[in-house]
Amino acid sequence: MVFRSFMDIALDEARAAAGRGEVPVGAVLVSPDGTVVARAGNRTRELNDPTAHAEILVIRAGCAAAGSERLPGHDLYVTLEPCPMCATALSAARIARLYYGAADPKSGGVAHGPRIFSHSQCHHVPEVYDGIDAQASEALLKDFFAARR
Ligand SMILES: [Zn+2]
User: Fold this and answer.
1) Which pLDDT score, from 0 to 100, does residue 15 have?
2) For residue 26, how far is the Cα from the chain centroid?
3) Going by CATH, does the domain composed of 13-103+115-124 fall within 3.50.50.60?
4) pLDDT per residue as tens digits for the range 108-125
5) C-beta atoms surrounding 116 within 10 Å
6) What is the mean pLDDT of the chain?
7) What pLDDT is recorded for position 114?
8) Assembly and interactions (predicted)?
9) Cα of 98 to ligand 1 centre, how many Å?
10) CA–CA separation, 120 vs 122, rounded Å?
11) Helices 54-66 and 84-92 sit at what angle, rounded to 10 degrees?
12) Residues catalogued as catalytic
């Protein structure tokens, strides 16, 4: 099977989030047969919900659609390295593969900080692929924060 990245859709969601005044992070959830199950950008401000990160929103939508608390075989694309909360949710949802864009040395929880997937308490570790379209993701974040200064 030919690898097809869904990061372009995640980047679209990140741009849409910036348009709403949200930190530009976007995520896409893809089912084992390659169908886009859910797509979302951050909505923490809109929903007054600190947990409304893009990853959490697609996991919630995917689980609701599947009628299950787990999403085995699913891939999750996100434009920025997941924070510790989202990394933990990814593990709990049994996501098979995580593809992310830019690294997040400040708030990331996969390659930085608590490195959630490297702990023995983490029962499910997804395959992780980083740096996917990282420059496009970084540029979005940089522009967003530069405009707010
Ligand atoms: Zn998060």
Assistant:
1) 98
2) 6
3) no
4) 999 999 999 999 999 999
5) 22
6) 96
7) 96
8) Homodimer.
9) 13
10) 5
11) 20
12) 55
Residues within the annotated binding site for Zn(2+)?
53, 83, 86
Segment 12-68, tens digit of pLDDT: 999 999 999 999 999 999 999 999 999 999 999 999 999 999 999 999 999 999 999
C-alpha–C-alpha distance, residues 121 and 37, integer Å: 28
CB-based contact 119:91 (threshold 8 Å): no
Residue with tokens 């609701």: 64
Structure token pair of residue 45 = 């401000």
Cβ–Cβ < 8 Å for 61, 52: no
pLDDT of residue 83 exceeding 80, the answer is yes
Q: Name the band, by pLDDT with cuts 50, 70 and 90, for residue 128.
A: very high
CA distances from 138 to 6, 103, 113, 127, 142 (A): 17, 9, 19, 22, 6
- Kindly give the distance from the C-alpha atom of residue 54 to the centroid of ligand 1, in angstroms, as a whole number: 7
